[in-house]
FAD-binding PCMH-type domain-containing protein
Amino acid sequence: MARSGARRHLSSTPVRSAGGVVRLTSEAYPNIVRDERFAQVTAEDVAFFKDVLGSDSALIDGVTSEAADIADDIAPFNEDWMRKYRGQGRLVLKPQTTEQVSRILAYCNDKKLAVIVLNLSRMNNVISFDEVSGVLVIDAGVILEVADQYLAERGHIFPLDLGAKGSCQVGGNLATNAGGLRLLRYGNLHGTVLGIEAVLPDGTVVDELSTLRKNNTGYDLKQLFIGAEGTIGVITKVAIQCPQRPKAVNVAFFGLESFKHARLAFREAKSQLSEILSAFELMDATSQNIVQHVTGYTRPLDGDYPFYCLVETSGSNGEHDYAKLEAFLEDVMSKEIVLDGVVAQDETQAQTLWKWREGVPEALGHVGGVYKYDVSIPLEEMYQLVEDTKARIQEAGLLNEDLADTASAAEHPVSAVVGYGHMGDSNLHLNVSTRVYDKRVEKILEPFVYEWIQKRKGSISAEHGLGVAKKAFIGYSRSDTMVKLMKQIKDLYDPNGIMNPYKYI
């Protein structure tokens, strides 16, 4: 269960203070009011949880302990990674078994507690792996990169890859329906997850840990938990189909003069690379300038270009695949679709090229606060949203693209409008980088961004869900009928509303 939160409201003051401290969400967004039907955590509750967990080290107790004693330990659980929201949770529980999760949720449901943070890092076991079928069964707390390393030793690959793979947990990936960098090749989690185990709010354990690819016996209820953001249950185990690990991975990086040319390059990549194409990523010039500004990396290409693309192939024959990729790059350059490009000569160079794509979110975070929109748009107009958004911000006089200028935050809070993402999936990351979070910027962006997407029948959340930020805007992507059905499901499984309250729907 996540910390209590609520829908996002505009504030007259930035969330981040001048000193860099993230203000409490309840202060920055005064319209967020705690639901009085939820109980406060007491010393009696803490005693029960300690008995369930069997170890004082399995929880962070800010209820019966002095706040100063646990401040550093509990802070990461109260603040989001974008440093935009900060809660006031005082208790973190770290269960090690599904039974413990069940007892905790049943107790919270009975007591109407909705402020407990569950951390599944101790539920980190690989339960089984079938090297013939490629089916992996693991606890939800397994780190994504750990799971992939385990599979690598057995000739397989986890069908999801994220820039945050070194810290994110597989259960969280499922709960937010993360798409990742190689969805183009391996598909999304709705297709690769074969079964799950989850715990409902009343403590009921849902044992749907099937390892079968085909099972057409009634409703496919596991799909309800994928992308549900923990609103109807806590995922505790997962069975997932893992492909054979490619023996050869090749990467190319190239510059283009327009988004139109990027589309043409993608068309040629699908045609010429077909079955070995595993990723086609788009980055605009602004995103690459910021990565260089923050990291000091040496650019892969000599010139500067309005757009860049990264292409990855995965196959079984390294020489053959490399030749195909090289031939593709030569062809699109001869047709003047691509202006310049490079093919990685080895794994180290391939990883270096990937840093220019994977490093964008982190680099933006170093520059300041970021308004993030992870959206799906029909490919033809995918980048137009970035251009239209930038034009609105410029017209309002809020943009100053000099990254070194920190003195103009009050007058020009926006430092960059960036577009990058998974071109192979029509998934754009529109990021508006700010020196401080500012009410004027929010008014420019919302609901403009969502209305723009709605007109093109896109999605306001391609991956990672709704949370606090997008709850109020779900109607731009889903009909009233669909929202009503979602609420009915939420009410059915969580009638007391204790799971991730105020968020999602």
Notes: The chain has a mean pLDDT of 91. The first strand starts at residue 59 and ends at 61. The radius of gyration is 23 Å. Residues 25-118 form a domain with the Uridine Diphospho-n-acetylenolpyruvylglucosamine Reductase; domain 2 fold (CATH 3.30.43.10).
